[in-house]
Specification:
The chain has about 290 residues and is of the alpha/beta class. It is built from 9 helices and 13 strands. About 30% of the residues lie in helices and about 20% in strands. Strand 5, helix 5 and strand 6 form a beta-alpha-beta unit. Helix 1 packs parallel to helix 2 and helix 5 packs parallel to helix 9. The radius of gyration is 21 Å and the shape is elongated.
Length: about 290
């Protein structure tokens, strides 16, 4: 996304202009803004449409903004007409730039009471997919999401909106090289499973996802790159019964994440200190 794009150009004379600010600092939509407030994320101000002043759906947003001392400004339709994201629902907030972590910082967040669960995105460029994946990761209790800093969507307004506010809760690490990030995760003791159909892939229900795990999801079309595939410990596939050859990336991520949740629930979340890893060259890793 072009970080030099701003809102506020081209309004009729005399109309209030939207602030000139990088659009990556924007959160929009009722639910996304409400989740930012609930999570205590710093917001500089919130703009609400005049016609929504007494809307019951905004009661929580306005009360939380008041409690957090976040200024609220009521705006005419002309203000929102200059805003490039049309699904704003008459609610736009300006916050701080998204705070990415380093990979080392993300690894340090590994919980002590349960196994780590990372999601690594290999050049997923569609912001709606990325937002949906982050949402699924948050619902699955993932430790962090890892994305590359080039040829990938960043956590921009569309991602925040598509995540339904999950970007306020899920740490996101940005890395220079996905293959190197996978190597680092393996050195930290994680088993890496790549979603990639093919003769080497095992059915996703046949692998053991109860340990410290990183799931790698590729972009729609090209999928996981060859270098990243080679770094994965195990490739997994989701069986398809129709004529379309692949699933949407966010759907595939959700299936794998909640297979991990299912397995861990059935196993009662084995504590980190009690499990050892055995790698069978044919069957992949198992945890005992």
């Amino acid at each position: 996304m072009d970080r030099h794009r701003h809102v506020g150009a081209g309004l009729p004379p005399g109309e209030r202009r939207a602030p000139r600010i990088d659009l990556d600092d924007v959160v929009y939509g009722v639910h996304a803004v409400d989740e930012m407030l609930v999570a205590g994320e710093p917001l500089r101000r919130i703009h609400v449409g005049d016609d929504r002043k007494r809307d019951p759906a905004l009661r929580n947003v306005l009360e939380r903004a008041r409690s957090a001392n976040v200024p609220v400004r009521f705006e005419s339709r002309a203000f929102f007409a200059s805003f490039p994201y049309k699904a704003h629902q008459g609610v736009v907030a300006f916050g701080e730039p998204f705070a990415y972590l380093s990979l080392d910082e993300a690894i340090a967040l590994r919980p002590r009471d349960r196994r780590a669960l990372f999601v690594v995105l290999d050049h997923v460029t569609d912001p709606h997919n990325m937002g949906a994946i982050i949402r699924s990761a948050e619902c699955a209790g993932a430790t962090a999401v890892v994305i590359p800093d080039r040829r990938s969507a960043g956590v921009n307004p569309t991602v925040r909106k598509s995540s339904a506010g999950a970007t306020a809760y899920v740490p996101v690490a940005r890395v220079a090289n996905v293959a190197q990030a996978v190597r680092t995760l393996k050195k930290a003791g994680m088993w890496v499973f790549g979603a990639a159909p093919g003769p080497r892939a095992q059915a996703y229900t046949a692998v053991d996802l109860r340990g410290d795990v990183a799931l790698v999801i590729g972009a729609e079309g090209p999928g996981i790159g060859p270098l990243v595939q080679r770094e994965c410990d195990v490739l997994v596939a989701i069986p398809l019964a129709g004529r379309i050859e692949s699933l949407n990336a966010s759907v595939a991520a959700g299936i794998l994440l909640f297979e991990a949740v299912r397995q861990r629930g059935e196993a009662g979340e084995p504590p980190a200190a009690s499990a050892s890893v055995v790698l069978d060259p044919e069957e992949g890793p198992s945890y005992t």
